[in-house]
Amino acid sequence: MKRALITGVTGQDGSYLAEFLIGKGYDVHGVIRRSSVDYRERIAHLEGHEHFHLHYGDMSDTLSMVQTVRAVQPHEIYNLAAQSHVQVSFDAPEYTANVDATGVLRILEAVRQCGLEKQCRIYQASTSELYGRVEQVPQNENTPFHPYSPYAVAKLYGYWIVKEYREAYGMFCSNGILFNHESERRGETFVTRKITLAAARISQGHQEKLYLGNLSSLRDWGYAKDYVECMWLILQYNEPDDFVIATGQQHSVRDFCQLAFHHAGIELEWRGQGPDEKGVCIAVNSSLPSAINLIGKTLVEVSPDFYRPTDVVNLLGDPTKAQQLLGWNPEKTSFEKLVELMVESDMAKVASDHAAAKVRCNLAEYLEKGIVK
Ligand code: NAP
Ligand code: G4F
Prior knowledge:
Mean pLDDT: 96
Strand content: 15-25%
Radius of gyration: 22 Å
Low-confidence stretches: none
Helix content: 25-40%
Number of strands: 15
Strand order of the largest sheet: 3-2-1-4-5-6-11
Distance between the termini: 54 Å
Number of helices: 10
Structural class: alpha/beta
Shape: globular
Bound molecules: NADP nicotinamide-adenine-dinucleotide phosphate, ligand G4F
């Protein structure tokens, strides 16, 4: 039975990858950080599975990386752990470098120190942010990098140290240069999930307005569940190599927002320009509760708080190499389907969160009135 070690197993991609690898018959080991709360939402359903194991570790702690690699003796390592939020990297640049740059080196060295360099294949979660202030559209494996945030600069080190260990020590380590990929499990501060949650809350009367930054930013958005399969395909290839994984389709933040609100039953019209641009509700679906009167209201506004000191605004990937060499299908889940899946999931989540909150509220009231003891 093959053993896989996943760093970042509690994240969006780590959780889908763990499910995928268990399905392929792997014994899956994940690295988790010790935290004061013990609930890990994205992998809660896997805990207790006979082929799913967790190990405490931190990307900033060499010893824990060496100990984990020694204990697991993995055939494959998927290095997904990272401080993955670009905007946060401007506030925490040193920490981001420690985890996203030096952390990669720690994994590679742990494999060497444990004498596993011939047995163990390593996948590095590289990113389209490397193209940054883009020098070519669309971007492929030969496009020059121009990182444009502390996050991207840290990831550039990760990318190159992987190539260095491949060439210097003959290790099987590969970079997946993944373009943005989203899902129902996407962190709530990334723009897509922030939008789908807000659309669900606004349509159910629990939020007034959504504030966003650059609405014109362009991204190549795919579905995370499809992308984790490609991580695995990259390690099954007959030699280590670097691959762009993308859909080849591009949309703006504004497009995403328009479609997400549409799926939540709200039609938006965009008025104004730049920081004064607003999304105004011009129609609602008849399924929306009649008490929620949104027509004519401004539901989306721009806030400079979400502008970045340097922003990457034109990402579009060319996945031809992955299509030809790995058999990757970039059209598995369309942009329209992705938005629909995310909104549907958040509509259900918001409804159930509020139903649960109402039960808690009622219970508090009944306790106060002595109706229940
Ligand atoms: P995510 O949801 O933010 O997950 C990040 C994971 O890294 C979490 O499990 C987190 O653990 C863990 N982590 C963070 N700091 C750590 C540390 N110091 N030690 C150990 N673990 C740590 O990210 P994602 O979207 O799944 O992305 C996975 C990887 O792909 C990341 O490296 C990201 O930079 C890269 N990437 C993502 C995309 C994308 O569009 N999603 C595109 C290209 C590349 P906690 O749960 O404890 O915080
Ligand atoms: O959703 P985002 O925060 O993702 P970003 O910066 O592209 O980074 C994600 O994808 C990368 C792959 O290219 C990964 F490497 C990285 O780990 C992460 O998963 O922002 C997307 C765009 C940006 O241009 C941002 O300026 O949306 C713009 N945006 C506009 N308003 C916003 C907002 N972003 C966020 N997070 N929040 C806003 O309110």
